[in-house]
């Protein structure tokens, strides 16, 4: 049985993790685009959830302190992540400049392997994700002590799975809207701004 204290700490982890994950970021933008296309959005949602779970677990066991105490590691991660996000944002910008609407004729555009590799890159090459999950969530979790920190981490992991599954469920329902070329170009433009905004914050 879960005690009242464990439940409270788990709820705190759920709310903390949810607050960080729901804010629009690289993973959310990519999953939204895949969901609207109806292109492997469930595997993407699952992989985003598993990636977040891995990073949260690393933070809970103490990796956050190791990363935050290594200026060289932070610098390499920041520059590498910013370069990737600039590249992905450029791709979205190029797509936004094309006068085409959403094509929902299937998954022929990209292979599952390609989509999953991009998902991993968006999830694991983005230092912003490490700061949110490993450093921030992990740091808060360790404040709850040796045992309760795992309940806090479990709550954050549950929030991640809940959010990405809900986003995977809801995004395809927007497909009719994005058959309009203007709506699709607007989404790509927003994705570009999100990616570049995160990249600039990393370099600032």
List keywords for this structure.
9 helices
Describe this structure in words.
With 204 residues, the chain is mostly helical. It has one domain. Helices cover 79% and strands 0% of the residues. The chain has helices at residues 4-22, 26-37, 41-60, 63-68, 71-96, 112-124, 127-142, 145-170, 181-203. Helix 1 (4-22) runs antiparallel to helix 7 (127-142), helix 1 (4-22) crosses helix 8 and helix 3 (41-60) packs across helix 7 (127-142). The longest helix has 26 residues, at 71-96. The protein is globular and about 55 Å long. The termini are far apart. Residues 104-108 have low confidence and may be disordered.
In short:
With 204 residues, the chain is an all-alpha fold. The chain has 9 helices and no strands.
Explain the layout of strands and helices:
Blueprint: H1 4-22, H2 26-37, H3 41-60, H4 63-68, H5 71-96, H6 112-124, H7 127-142, H8 145-170, H9 181-203
Which geometry do the CA atoms define?
Answer: globular
Q: Indicate the low-confidence ranges by residue numbers.
A: 104-108
Q: What structural category arises from helix and sheet content?
A: mainly alpha
H/E topology pattern: HHHHHHHHH
Total count of strands: 0
Q: What's the rounded overall pLDDT mean? A: 81
Helix proportion range: over 70%
Residues in β-strands, percent: under 5%
Please summarize the sheet with the most strands. none
């Amino acid at each position: 049985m879960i005690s009242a204290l464990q439940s409270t700490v788990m709820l705190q982890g759920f709310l903390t993790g949810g607050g960080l994950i729901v804010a629009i970021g690289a993973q959310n933008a990519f999953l939204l685009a895949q969901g609207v296309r109806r292109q492997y959005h469930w595997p993407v949602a699952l992989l985003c959830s598993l990636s977040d779970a891995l990073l949260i677990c690393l933070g809970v066991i103490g990796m956050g302190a190791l990363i935050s105490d290594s200026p060289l590691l932070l610098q390499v991660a920041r520059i590498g992540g910013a370069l990737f996000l600039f590249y992905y944002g450029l791709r979205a910008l190029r797509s936004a400049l094309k006068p085409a609407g959403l094509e929902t004729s299937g998954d022929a555009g990209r292979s599952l392997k390609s989509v999953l590799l991009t998902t991993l890159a968006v999830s694991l090459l983005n230092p912003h994700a490490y700061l949110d999950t490993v450093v921030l969530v992990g740091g808060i979790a360790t404040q709850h002590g040796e045992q309760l920190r795992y309940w806090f981490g479990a709550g954050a992991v549950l929030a991640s799975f809940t959010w990405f599954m809900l986003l995977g469920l809801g995004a395809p329902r927007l497909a009719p809207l994005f058959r309009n070329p203007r709506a699709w170009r607007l989404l790509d433009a927003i994705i570009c701004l999100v990616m570049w905004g995160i990249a600039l914050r990393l370099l600032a």
